[in-house]
Every structure is written in structure tokens, then in C-alpha cells.
Amino acid sequence: MLDTARRYEIPEGIELDFRVAGPVVRACAWAIDLLIRAGLYLVIAIPLSFMGGMGMGVTLIFFFVIEWFYPVLFELRQGATPGKKAMGLEVIHDDGTPIGWSASLIRNLLRTVDFLPFLYATGLIAILLNQDFKRLGDLAAGSLVIYRDKATLRPGLPDVKPLQPPANMTSDEGRTLLAFAERSPRLSSERRIELAEILTGLTGKQGEAAVTELHAYANWLSQGR
Amino acid sequence: MRQQAFEQQHREMWQQLRHLLDELDRPKRKRQLDASAIASLPALYRALCNHYALSRSRHYSPELERELHEMIVRGHRHLYAGRSAQLWRLVIFISRGFPQLFRKQIAYFWVAALLFLVPGLLIGGYCYFQSEMIYSVMDDTQVAQMESMYDPANRKPGRSIERSAETDMMMFGHYISNNIGIGFRTFAGGMLFGVGSVLLLVFNGVFIGAVAGHLTRMGYEETFWSFVSGHGSFELTAIVICGASGLMLGHALIAPGQRTRVDALKWRAADALKLVMGAAAMLLVAAFIEAFWSSSSVATEIKYGVAALLWLLVALYLGMAGRRAHGSG
Lengths: 225, 329
Fold this sequence. Notes:
The complex is a heterodimer. Chain A is mostly helical. Helices cover 57% and strands 9% of the residues of chain A.
């Protein structure tokens, strides 16, 4: 079990797995956001600077909104700021539900304290002192920064004629066989053979034949004869 | 049941749910969904949860499990999303929710008000009677700048000479970013066991008190008090409310009571945040008054009259708004 994996039971009675995000990846996300914000400041300030005191006033209001509410606006829209999205992160409540108004505002207003005395030193200490990598704002808001799982296509089992395994298997053993067959396309052929030959005692085969034999067992487990 | 048969039996339903989730992930105006499709989400989602539990207990392949898990996370996100922002909820909050919550948590307000007023009055009194005292609060340049701001010869009171030419709009922007920023920081300071909020309250009290005492001693009272008395009603009250919400965080951390510290913090922070948001709205009003009314050259008597009305308004709003009429509930 990975030490950053967290489980939450949802009302439907099953458990969801999340992986919480650590300080380094969050710092990267923050740096990307910093660049985006700097860009926004320029885009707003340059045209408005030609409009005298009026433009200056509007600029200050925009700056204020960006400084305090930039993360809130994005978190409510898509669950993450552009920087976090680029790093594959997402902010959620610690009960697994999407982040809401109240929690997002709390965690971002308290950012000031996490930043003290410089560059998120307080936040970093807080992150290192609790198991969920929460900075002070996250503690007060009850929020969590996690990795957003990417949607990937599931590879099918290798196309081999099913074959009943010579011995009865426990369900865990069967699952291991299935996992091996499903992961096979992502392994190098040497590694496949190396893994398959662990079971030479059972299959009586070596080399590529051992791999095919295990794939046949896996197919039998999955679909029967 | 074998995995392959299980998959074949439910494949179509998973496809339907996946399609629905794909549509829901898109921005609202680009969605092509009718009401019945959206209404089918909970049933599909619960069925999927059931399939996921089955696939785990029957030890189907890890990849199948992962595929179902990923869809559940996406469905969970949509099904349990919080209510979106609606304008009328903001209106209800400003007109009823905020003053009601303020009265519920008024003890914190009084403590914060004492922390702000007592040092302010003490230092203000010192500065009024002793001309040197002001220099222990701020340095020479600050004193000179402040004196020039409220010099009766200044055409736009409350603004330094170099700023007097700038438009009211620019000052509006400045007051918003500066004052609401101070309010937010005063709240956030509560996270340091309340110490940050206490310090900011005391510091602001001392600074404002010193300026008031010093300028009154200088004989600038007309320009100064007529300038600050109007927007001060909203501004000072709101800053004290921000301090009070910071004290709530500090209280939760120092004395969590029956809860764990983190639980107490979460519980108080939700209420504290609402107070801060209400105070931010008050600071917005204050910035508007300060930029467009306080600096105008209306007769002093009218300004004092309006200021009295504004203080009365703040007191009535916080004290009365959202109360039920007698006998109705």
C-alpha cells in the first residue's frame, strides 16, 4: 500500500481511493499559477494605464480580486487552478465531495498565514506535520489536494485460447494471474518471461511459452471455457 | 459469474453512464442533455457502485476494478457537488444571514472591539495631551504626511498633496484593495492561535487613535473628524468584525472543548468565514463612501449629520435586520 493513498467510504457503502499530493508538486502548481497571474496583471494593467485615474482605480480593483480570489474562482469552476490542473491535481473536501464556496474561500484567505514568514514556510511545516499534506488553510477548510486520475483505456486480455489451470487457485492467486495478463502489454518481453518463469513449477514451461500458458489460464479465469 | 459474462451483461449501462458523465464534464451551455438523461444519473451511479462492490468481492481483474472506480469518482463528483452560486442567496445572506450570525457570535465582537478601542483611546488621549507622543507611534515623514493630508488648506481632505489630483475612482480602487486586504489578514491572523488577529486589532487601534489624538491637538479636528466620521461607521465596525472572526479561529485552536482541535477549527471556521464575507461587503460600502463622499467639499454640518445617520444605519442593520416581528415565530 502506498503511503499517500487514502480511502474514504462514500454513502453508497463503498470505499474510494485517493492519492494525496505532496509539497513539491503543489509548489510547481503554485509557480505555474504565479506566472499566469503575472501575465494577467500585465494584460489588465497595460491597456488601463492609458486611462488615467479611472483606469488606475479599475486596475487596483482587478488586482485585488486576482490576489485574493483567483484560486477560488477556478476551484469552484473546475476543482483546480490552471497550475494545479496542469500538474494533474484537484482540490476536494476531505469527505471526497467537490470543493464548495465556503471551504475554497477559507483555504485561500488563510493562504496569507501559510505564506508567513516567507514563501509558504508555515504551510510547508504544516504539510510535513500531518499525514494528509494539509497546510493550515486546508486544516481549517477541511480540504484536500489530490491527484486527479486520468481516464485511460483498459487493455483487454491477450487473445489466447483459454486453458483450465492445472491446480485450483485461491481468488487472490487468480487475481494475480489476471493482473499479470492485463499488465503484460506494458512489460518488456524479458520481464514478462522472468515473471512467468516463477511459475515454471506449475506450468512446466519456459520462455515465451510460459507467458502464453499463463495468459491462457487468465483467459479461462475471466471467461471460462 | 465469470468476469467476461459480467462485463457483457453491464457493458451497455456503463457506456450510457460514461456518455452522461462526458456530457456533464463539459461547460453547461455546450451540453446536449435532456432532463430525463440527467435524472437517470443517480440510478445509473448507484448501479455502478453495486457493480464495483461485486467486482471487488468476486476478485475480478484489477483493471476492471480501476475502470469502474474511475467512473464512480466522476459520478460522485457530479452527484455530490455543492449548490452553485446564486444571486438571491447572496441577497438573503446580506439582508438576514449576516446580521443574525453577527448577533449569535456577538461575544467575539465585543472582545475584538475592546482590543481595538482600549489601546486606541489610551494612545489617542496621550497624543492629545502630549505633543511628543505621536513620534513613538510613527516616524517623522509619516507624521508630516498625515498632517498635510488633513491640513484645512488641503482642497481634498484625507489625501496627501501628491494624491489630491487623482480621481475619486482611483481612490475607490485603492481603498478596496487596501482595506479589504487588511480585513482578510486580520481574519487569517487568527490561525496563529489568535495572536495575529489580536496584534492587528491593537496595532490598528493604536495607529488610528494616535492620528486622531494628534490631529485634534493640532486643531485640524474639522477636516479630520468630518472626513473619517462617515465611512468610519462601516469601516471600523467591519475591521472589528474581521478581528472577531479571527478570534473565533484562535478560540477553536486554544480551547477546542469536546472536539479535536481540527474539528473545532473546521466547525468555527465556517461561521467565521461568513462573518468575514459580510465584513468585506461592509468594507466595500465604506470604500465607496470614503472615495466619493468623505472627500467632497460639502459643509461640515451636513457631513456630521450624514455620519450620524450612517452610524445609526450600521447599528440598526447589525442589531435588527433579520429579527422576526413579535408574535410571528
